[in-house]
Design brief:
Layout lengths: L1 E4 L8 H8 L14 E4 L2 H9 L7 E7 L8 H15 L11 E6 L6 E7 L16 H18 L8 H10 L6 H19 L6 H10 L3 E5 L3 E5 L7 E4 L9 H10 L8 H27 L20 H12 L6 H19 L12 H13 L3 H32 L2 H34 L7
Helix pairs in contact: 3-11, 4-9, 5-6, 12-13, 13-14
Length: 451
């Protein structure tokens, strides 16, 4: 699992929302699985994000799981809440901030895409969950590390070759043909370096020039190149492009990044401490910027204040202290995070030793409970029925919202909404059928005897 923030957010939010809900991916190919709305209303979010005159109107990102990593709907909901309380601590959804979440699964893995409006709703001030700086990058890295450790996933280890060669894979301005050429060239470079045929920066520059890539500038820690299909030079920085780089060490790191790494207990505690420190700093900032009334922002007649008879300066300081949002103690932050991680950890435990392990997670857990409890399963089934009813209710609300959106939609947008409505109707039909089965099982199961 890894969190990526995209370099987008300028202009209107319509295009970002449309992409998240589109039945086609970024290459224009039909998605094998339609997107699923997880949280937020697309129209409301778009209006809020576009209400500001600032250039950067929203932040776009994704929590991406690797192909072999699985997650249940219950875990998805918890993960979204942990993300919010981590990067927007002290703020409430729909009261202080607006976000929108959608799930993509067409690549064979789970991707939780999110959009966060860059405006705090009560003050109208700028709100940025991903400010520039090394500390913020470390904050996000700590979140990924703690989440992977909680779910039992391997850690994300950076591949220096992949990072350095990424500019060669970027989309070319001259279209798909040039993009394919760049991808092929990046793969060739990767093979040459990993195989030890290109052993230092000088050999890399020579290889680039022999294959038609102009290298107009060579700096101490960078080079500039004219990539295939590009009209401008691109500056390349990173370990591969610095003078005196140890290519053998980078290749060793590349191979090491392919070996699954799991945190030791000490490493896990260290990452949790870093995450808590980041939450504390972010919370203090949010309280100071958004949750503390500014002196003079709302003028109140002195006669109505209990501190009227005190000297002016003392009275004003006392009033500010009375209104100031009290900081959340570090102990309370740690306790809250521990509870959230414990919940995720419990939800993530697979039933690997039980005969129902091959079944989907939810069905397996229900079957295991019935096998262990025997006659008491009739009591437990009430919770299963309630869970299905809650899920049906949630999807029904999404269905109703989409029907309302369809009234004013036209063209391609209308077609996208119709596809989502059809998918929801199929899911609702299956859930209703499952609900009827559970109710029949509950009715036919023997009632426990009173003792």
């Amino acid at each position: 699992m890894n969190v990526t923030i995209f370099p987008t957010g300028k202009g209107g939010a319509e295009s970002a929302v449309s992409y998240l809900l589109s039945d086609k991916d970024h290459e224009g190919k039909k998605r094998s699985v339609l997107p699923e709305i997880l949280s937020g209303d697309p129209n409301t979010f778009t209006e809020i994000a576009n209400a500001t005159k600032r250039l950067h109107k929203y932040t776009s990102g994704v929590i991406a799981l690797r192909d072999h990593e699985t997650i249940t709907q219950e875990q998805v909901t918890s993960l979204i809440e942990v993300f919010r309380s981590t990067f927007l601590p002290g703020l409430k959804v729909d009261e202080n901030f607006a976000d929108f979440w959608a799930m993509h699964r067409e690549k064979g893995n789970v991707e939780l895409h999110f959009l966060v409006a860059n405006t705090e709703l009560t003050s109208g001030q700028q709100l940025n969950i991903h400010p520039p700086g090394v500390k913020n990058i470390q904050f996000f890295n700590a979140f990924s590390a703690v989440m992977n450790d909680t779910f039992g996933f391997a850690q994300v280890v950076a591949d220096p070759l992949k990072i350095s060669l990424k500019p060669f894979e970027a989309k070319s301005p001259n279209g798909k043909k040039d993009k394919k050429a760049k991808e092929d060239f990046a793969k060739v470079l990767h093979t040459e370096i990993a195989g030890g045929f290109i052993k230092d920066r000088n050999q890399l520059i020579g290889y680039l020039k022999r294959h038609g890539v102009d290298v107009p500038t060579v700096g101490t820690d960078f080079i500039t190149v004219r990539l295939p299909g590009a009209k401008k030079n691109t500056r390349l920085k990173g370990p591969l492009f610095a003078k005196g780089s140890d290519y053998a060490a980078l290749v060793a790191e590349h191979h090491q990044s392919k070996i699954p790494k799991y945190l030791t207990q000490a490493e896990a505690e260290d990452q949790r401490d870093k995450l808590i420190a980041g939450i504390e700093a972010r919370l203090a900032f949010n309280q100071r910027r958004y949750l503390t009334p500014k002196p003079g922002a709302k003028r109140v007649r002195k006669a109505k204040l209990p501190t009227t008879n005190l000297p002016h300066r003392v009275a004003r300081r006392q009033d500010e202290l009375d209104h100031k949002a009290k900081p959340l103690p570090s102990k309370e932050i740690r306790s809250t995070l521990k509870e959230q991680l414990t919940q995720l950890n419990e939800q993530a435990k697979p039933a690997t030793k039980l005969p129902t392990a091959a079944l989907p997670h939810q069905q397996a857990r229900q079957q295991d409970e019935r096998d262990r409890e025997g006659p008491l399963s009739s009591v437990m089934s009430a919770g299963v029925v309630g869970g299905l009813e809650a899920q049906i209710g949630s999807l029904s609300m999404q269905h109703h919202s989409l029907l309302l959106m369809l009234v004013s939609a036209k063209g391609r947008r209308a077609a996208q909404i119709k596809s989502q409505i059809m998918a929801l109707e199929q899911k609702l039909s299956a859930l209703n059928l499952e609900l009827e089965k559970k109710k029949l099982q509950e009715k036919d199961s023997p009632k426990p005897k009173n003792i």
